[in-house]
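Following up on my earlier thread - several people asked me to post the actual chain instead of describing it. Fair enough. Here it is, all 257 residues.
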Amino acid sequence: MKTWFVCAAIVLCAGMVTARAQHGGDGSADLEAARAGVGKWVGTRQMILKEQKDWQQTREILAARIEAVKKEIAAIEERLGETRRTGGEAAGKRAEIHAESEALRRTGSGLADAVTQYETHLRRLHGALPAPLQEKLAPLYQRMPAEAVPTKASAAERFQNVLGILNEINRMNGEITLASEIRTLADGRPSEVRTVYLGLAQAYYLSAGGEAGIGYPAADGWTWEAAPELAPRIAAVVEILQNKRSPEFVSLPVRIQ
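Reply from S.P.:
Thanks for posting it. Predicted structure:
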């Protein structure tokens, strides 16, 4: 179609030149003018066609870029949405963790108060414990912080120490214990004795010289009383516990408080 327009223009101009020559005009000048006009027309048409081609290419490039930008925007919006969702979840988790931390803090504070009360009770109980048990528990009592004094020990560590003391107390309270001790007797002289503890409630002692007595726990320590009439029966109990005598029933007085 474009070639047809150019040929038509050339034929038309040639016809004009021929017509003028037939009428006696200056044919050479008219031919040159026609050629110049055709050349300008062709150049103009070529420029238009080039501009149209360039615009078509530019439009395709712009369309591709617009499509790419749209996809990039969609991807960014998707990431933003995911970030918002993640941010919301993170905020929820932070709130949940904060609530848990606050609950743990309150629980920890309550545990610290509870273990402090246990330690206070154990300090008061210490004097009523038998001497052998006091000696055994000395390292655990030393680990307890002084009363009303700040400590770096955690509540868990303090609870573990308290449980260790209570376990030993409970163990001895359920057993009959035979211990060797030094005790001041009626003549005022210290002497080695064998002491039989019935749990934490009652005790009997017997010296090598046959001096016997009975003991009871008190808040500030054990109270001991001479009981020479119990010597034979206490000696029997000691021999049974030492496996020097067959087990048998032995009657001994018990004070119920």
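The first strand starts at residue 176 and ends at 184. That should answer part of your original question.
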